[in-house]
Amino acid sequence: MKYDNQWRHYLMMLLVISSAAAASEVGSGNVHIPTTLEGPFEPVTRRFDPALRRGSDDLPMDHPRLKKKVTGMTPEQVALALSAAPTSVWVSWITGDAQIGSDVKPLDPSSVASEVWYGKASGNYTSTQKGVAAVYDQLYPFEGLQNYTSGIIHHVKLEGLIPGAKYYFKCGDSSIPAMSEEHSFETMPPVSPNMYPSRIAVIGDLGLTSNSSTTIDHVMRNDPSLVLMVGDLSYANQYLTTGGKGASCFSCEFPDAPIRETYQPRWDGWGRFMEPLISRVPMMVVEGNHEIEPQVAEITFKSYSTRFAVPSEESGSNSSFYYSFNAGGIHVVMLGAYIDYNQTGIQYTWLKEDLSRVDHNITPWLVAAWHPPWYNSYSSHYQEFECMRQEMEALLYEYKVDIVFSGHVHAYERMNRVYNYTLDPCGPVYITVGDGGNIEQVDVDHADDPGKCPSPGDNMPEFGGVCHLNFSSGPAKGKFCWSRQPEWSAYRESSFGHGVLEAGH
Q1: Where does the record place the Calcineurin-like phosphoesterase domain (predicted)?
Q2: Is the N end or the C end of the chain the one with fewer CB atoms within 10 Å?
């Protein structure tokens, strides 16, 4: 096995909580939870209602969960993120009104302060910290398209915190005054083989539908201490710049459009939608294909890279697209699939250096996450990021990564331990948690279903090369698809929801 027996007493498990799952039963202690990743076992879940596979409509911008509730420079969209160490936390928020139209004028980030007042007792703020602010533009210099400029986005890093402690805070500008209401959070436990966050929620491809609301309501009832968001967040690029409905295949529906459009106010709605959760629970994000949002001059990811604070610099990365952090005895690596991942690139070099510094005596568990899965038996996105797997898989195997989380495929799938498409007790467990409820429907077809094997040209990545292959060994030797569920696919279910990772010893 991967580790000596001294590590076998540690526990990690994943529960998939779909909209139809018995979350209350899981939390009541009335069910038996498997205690290893060796399997095979099926998640504790109610049978999924196939009617839910139709998806649900997006919430309108005037929905109470999306509508702006504050005025002036009062903070909104308050969010937390971890730093690389448990002694610091990022606090983010937005002030002022975003603008949309043919002629917009950006707000001045220096016109309002970025302050956080915080302390260990409610109402008693013994420390203050200042940070940085920015705005971003999403510009479409084409006739009939609307431009967007954001409110003022603030990021403040709180330092010198005590691990495993509760803090209360307000954020804003005390000189106006325009301060938020009081929020609270708990820092991560110390980096130690005996200390873990109590519960980690894993969400992918969330969106802003009524099903998304169900997912977030379930997450909040599960009371996690950390959220991993594995890409495709707001689905703002499913809309036209005017707010009119777009299409998942934009070029199919609008072949004459000069560029794929987005409706950036959906991002603001998403920030308000998430605030009740992420103003008290840190959320760590990684980019998905719906965050690309191209502008002219090859500008991409402008909203994603401006709205979210991530510990890039603290973890030795020079990019917000990949970084790492510790959560007690877990080292987590977030990787970018939509930037250079080749072995000659900066991200690969950073990843190798980061993994080489991991001490399994201190952080016994090593978790990685990125958006598109490498192992996937669904027809949708089948072998789409095979190039990334070929470039990076050996490195993850060498440094003993335990679990990999991805989204992108709108379904759930858990793999047996695998390396290079071969069952391997030292390989990671790959888990796809790819439908948090977004407006696109749940993926149902499997590549091994009769007549459902895609052609090699069907699933083309939005970044990187094409490396589709026929299998060179095993029951599918010489074929592009298996004729039955692959042996490396342990369990799959076409449902929406989220995952819950629990750790203990």
Answers
A1: 199-412
A2: N
State the helix-helix crossing angle for 210-222 and 265-278, rounded to 10 degrees: 20
Residue pair 301/322 in contact (Cβ under 8 Å)? The answer is: no
Which residues are tagged catalytic? 381
Number of structural domains the chain divides into: 1
Per-residue confidence (pLDDT) for residue 53, from 0 to 100: 65
What's 105's DSSP letter? -
Phi, psi of 283 (to 5 degrees): -120, 125
In angstroms, rounded to a whole number, what is the distance separating the alpha carbons of residues 155 and 116? 10
pTM over 0.85: yes
Query: What domain range is 313 assigned to?
Result: 5-504
pLDDT at 66: 98
- DSSP characters for 194-260? T---S-EEEE-S--SBHHHHHHHHHHHHH--SEEEE-S--S-GGGB-TTS-B--SSHHHH-TT-SS-
CATH code for the domain in which residue 461 is found: 3.60.21.10
Task: Give me the pLDDT at residue 32, please.
Answer: 42
Report the distance separating Cα 361 and Cα 356, nearest Å: 13
Cα–Cα distance, 418 to 420 (Å, whole number): 7
Distance CA 133, CA 152 (A): 6
Considering the chain, what percentage of its residues have pLDDT values greater than 70?
Answer: 89
pLDDT at 255 (0 to 100): 86
CA separation, residue 219 to residues 214, 228, 325, 328, 501 (Å):
9, 12, 22, 21, 12
pLDDT score, position 247:
77
Which residues, at least 6 apart from 263, have a Cβ–Cβ distance to it below 8 Å? 236, 239, 240, 241, 242, 243, 246
Query: Given this model, what pLDDT does residue 4 score?
Result: 34
Say if CB 481 and CB 447 are below 8 A apart: yes
